[in-house]
Amino acid sequence: MPPESTFVEPLASKNIITRTQLEARCKAGEVLIVVNHKVYKLDKWIKHHPGGQLAIRHCIGRDCTDEVRALHPDYVLQKKIKYFEIGDFRPVDTDDLLSAVPALTPKTKEEIFEAQHKQVSAAYRKLEDRLKVDGLFATNYTNYAWEFARYLTLFTMSWVFNLWGTCTLHYMVSALCLALFWHQVSFFAHDAGHNAITHSLPIDNGIGIVLADCLGGLSIGWWKKSHYVHHIVTNHPIHDPDIQHLPFFAVTTKVFKGFFSTYHNRQMDFDRVAQFFVSYQHYLYYPILMFGRFNLYVQSMLFLINEPVYPYRKQELFGLLIYWIWFPWFLYQLPSANIIIAYIFVSHMFTFMLHVQITLSHFGMSTDELGDHESFAAKMLRTTMDVDCPTWLDWFHGGLQFQAIHHLFPRMPRHNLRSAQPYVKEFCEEVGLTYHIHNFTKGNKIVISALKDVADQVGFFFEVAKHEAKEFVDSQKIVAPESKKTC
Q1: Transmembrane stretches, by residue range (predicted)?
Q2: pTM for the full model?
Q3: Which contacts (CB < 8 Å, 24+ apart) does range 308-314 have?
Q4: How far is CA 271 from the centre of its chain?
Q5: 41-49: long-range contacts (C-beta < 8 A, 24 or more apart)?
């Protein structure tokens, strides 16, 4: 039997809202979204959204059925969201329908895109239902038990080699074990952030706080706010925080003129510092990523300090307090200041592989902005790349080497992503989409090549800009007219 559909049909609404009315009300400041042909007003709820306000703001005024369905458990669509319903959505006004009666004229490009959008979305929703029937959204707790045993082993080894070590080699082995622990436990926290473990928000959030905050010193709330936006506007230069790394990296030349980041809420200029780093970014890619964890500490604290409404602030601050008690004490057990410094750098910098794995699937992919004519599934497959590897290496990549599949089905437990791959390949062949997958080495080459392509454009871009500026100045020069001769 197929699972109960997440597309519940609330009681028929007498209030009909057309596209024109929807756009007008959104321009007036209302927070309205469309899900399954129903209009929902989220003005009061938006500040309490567990995934942050921006995740909703990117959906205002449009049909975001696939996004809501992908990122939320079934009970949200079946029960919770219906309390915010204000009417039925009618995409086309009656007058527009009447004017479109003689529709024997060739279809416009927008109409073709819209038809493709509907076709892909219908096939994508059918695929999701099929995966549910086949049990790929169900959690295999045995898998998580084995993962937990691996984490516990690495964490224990880091303590043993630290507390009972007798030489520098022992202490560096401890640092490597701790780095591997942080690398691996991030995958577990990732699933908790997507409610993909127990599928209960309070329980999974508690797991995330223990793993990320208490043991890693990072805010799971900050990660969720950033990551959910990334899932909705993947690889959008202005909106996606996961590709906004100025002054160090630029994955597209579109940022050369500067832009206002909607996530960071500030102007990001391509200044002289950015020009320097981006010009050599293909050489600096791995070295800079080695310092990524230090930046995450800063981002976590800024989130907990500045986020206006966050329901788990106290729990996360308590979790970070635990981390900043045990980790400094742990370092204090080392015999000298030099070894402490070396330990900090080794344990933190060797987590760079996690940052490589995260950026690998997106830095070399499309950053085009195709708008609402593109379906959610098509956008995820265009902007995301999977990494092919043997099954025995899944533990190292954490299962998230299947980033494209994960983006299509964010709530699917990682250990099921490989099993979903044949379904996704079949889906791509059916609807005519490209499934990008390369081995780890090829994926790294693609990213480095993409970074080099952007780096090579820096000098050319500013030479052209300088030439255009000079031409503009010359065109503004006013030549004084000759004085008229008087009689």
Answers
A1: 159-182, 283-305
A2: 0.87
A3: 308/47, 309/47, 309/48, 310/221, 311/48, 311/50, 312/205, 312/209, 312/221, 313/221
A4: 26
A5: 41/84, 41/86, 42/84, 45/84, 47/308, 47/309, 48/309, 48/311
How would you class 446 by CB atoms within 10 Å of its CB: exposed for 0-12, middle for 13-18, buried for 19 or more? middle
Ramachandran angles phi, psi of 386, nearest 5°: -90, 155
* Whole-number pLDDT of residue 484: 45
Cα 384-294-233 angle, rounded to 5 deg: 25
Residue 236 has pLDDT above 50, yes or no: yes
Query: What's the mean pLDDT in 67-78?
Result: 87
Instruction: Name the token pair of 254.
Output: 């579109």
Q: Tell me the C-alpha distance between 34 and 83, whole Å.
A: 14
- Give the total residue count for the chain: 487
363: which residues sit within 8 A by CB, 6+ positions away?
243, 249, 251, 447, 450, 451
Look up tokens 């202005």; give the residue.
Answer: 238
How many helical (H) and strand (E) elements, i.e. helices and strands, does the chain have? Answer: 22, 8
d(CA 428, CA 325): 50
Q: Residue 257: is it exposed, middle or buried by C-beta count within 10 angstroms (0-12/13-18/19+)?
A: exposed
Delineate the domains of the chain, giving CATH numbers in brackets.
19-95 (3.10.120.10), 141-408 (no CATH)
Q: Are 380 and 122 in contact (CB under 8 A)?
A: no
